[in-house]
Amino acid sequence: xxxxxxxxxxxQPQYGTGTVTAxxxxxxxxxxxxxGPRTFVTSKVKLEASATPAPAKAVKKSRxxxxxxxxxxxxxxxxxxxxxxxxxxxxxxxxxxxxxADDGEGHDELGLDEISASDE
Length: 120
What we know:
Order of helices and strands: EEEEE
Number of helices: 0
Shape: rod-shaped
Mean pLDDT: 76
Largest sheet: 5 strands, antiparallel
Structural class: mainly beta
Helix content: under 10%
Radius of gyration: 42 Å
Oligomer: single chain
Strand content: 15-25%
Strand order of the largest sheet: 4-3-2-1-5
Number of strands: 5
Low-confidence stretches: none
């Protein structure tokens, strides 16, 4: 069993040439030029020393950070419960929005809003 050092260039029959990135008595990790990183069992992997230089790696650009989120601006709330004449909850036809007849003074025309003194 040959233990390669980190940075050694090696060749493996299936993956081609690569650079050893980690090695111990149990595992050997190699960054292959065309296949990326692979980890092998050190005692079973078949490697040969390689004299081919490592290809130049493309420099990865870091992502731009997102612009900070703008604070949400509360939109004005429009209260549309007032009718055109400014009388809340009453329509022009003499009926309140709940469908009951209204005499305009807050009393139900049918006399159901209050019990009269004569009923007692």
